[in-house]
Write a structure and sequence with these properties.
The protein has about 140 residues and is α+β, with helices and mostly antiparallel strands. It has helices at about 1-10, 15-40, 40-45, 45-50, 65-75, 80-95; strands at about 100-110, 115-120, 125-130, 135-140. It has one domain (about 1-140).
């Protein structure tokens, strides 16, 4: 309960534009977190390219602002792993009219376990997936349209 109050208090300090972006990111992240648990990845991955940019906004979010919004939303959703974050970031970017690349990669861990990671880049900005993506060998990247 204490963390809920902290979230509400910190949201109250945001400017309207930042709060709106965080809420939109939260919506995408929630939807993608549920989707990857219930629907096959191939089906979920087709959502991003079908999203059309909004034209009713004079000022769209930059890739940096999208990254910040996804980071804020991920703090609210427990267990938001890299795949739902990357998918949500991809959808948010496309809705804002940006070109993005969703990548999947693997890494053999020290314990000989295969690890996977997902990340999204847009306009030279790593929007989701963080710096750790550089350690992973890309398996697939959905190219920019």
């Amino acid at each position: 309960m204490r963390s809920l109050f902290r979230i509400v208090r910190s949201a109250g300090r945001l400017e309207t534009r930042e709060l709106t972006a965080a809420l939109r990111a939260l919506g995408w992240l929630t939807m993608m977190r549920v989707a990857v648990r219930v629907v096959p990845y191939a089906t979920v991955a087709r959502i991003g390219p079908r999203i059309r940019p909004r034209h009713d906004r004079p000022h769209r979010l930059t890739p940096h602002q999208c990254r910040r919004a996804i980071e804020r939303a991920a703090r609210v959703i427990p267990g938001a792993a890299c795949l739902p974050r990357a998918l949500a970031a991809d959808c948010l970017l496309r809705r804002e009219g940006h070109v993005s690349t969703l990548s999947l990669g693997v890494l053999m861990g020290d314990d000989r376990q295969l690890r996977a990671h997902a990340w999204v880049d847009s306009g030279g900005v790593r929007v989701a997936g963080g710096d750790e993506a550089a350690q992973y060998r890309p398996l697939a990247a959905r190219p920019e349209p």
